Structure prediction request, 183 residues.
Amino acid sequence: MCGELDVVSLTAFAVAAVHRVLPVYRIYGEVHPDIRGHEAAHDALAAIPQLPRRLPGVTRGRVARKVEIALAGASRDLGVVRWRTRPDVAESMVAEVISAVVLVLNSWKSPSVEGCCQAVVTALAVDAAWGDDSRVHYGQLLRDARELSRPEGFDLPDAYRALLFRAQQESAVHLQRMRSLLV
Prediction:
């Protein structure tokens, strides 16, 4: 999948994959107040696909600031989670999600096919942690890759908007599962 996309589309693809599992980070942060980076991660992940759409007020500099803030928060949170004395399923999943966030944000800063692909694989690992076979998430990724690899003339900015919107909707399963695990 990753080799078929240009680096801009690959980044949007990886952002969507990570966005699908982001609720794991959010719910974990609601239960553990020392984990506070979810909102900054969400803001950065939502801002990246807005650049190609050329929305008013969206500049590379503004997105870069959001990415830096999110990276600082995610890195701090990842350190906190990794130092838990008794890691369990929730810690394992949130560590995977935060790692995926860091990978995709770093891959946006310094375009990296390998980093984006690793972020996608890490996001898929969250499904594996639930004991799922990952077919649903993998099918969503295949659909996204097909959509982004359409021939010239395809409106990529609209595709990025649709991709992020769908990813947010498809993340509900992770939100519900994490809530049931922690609450």
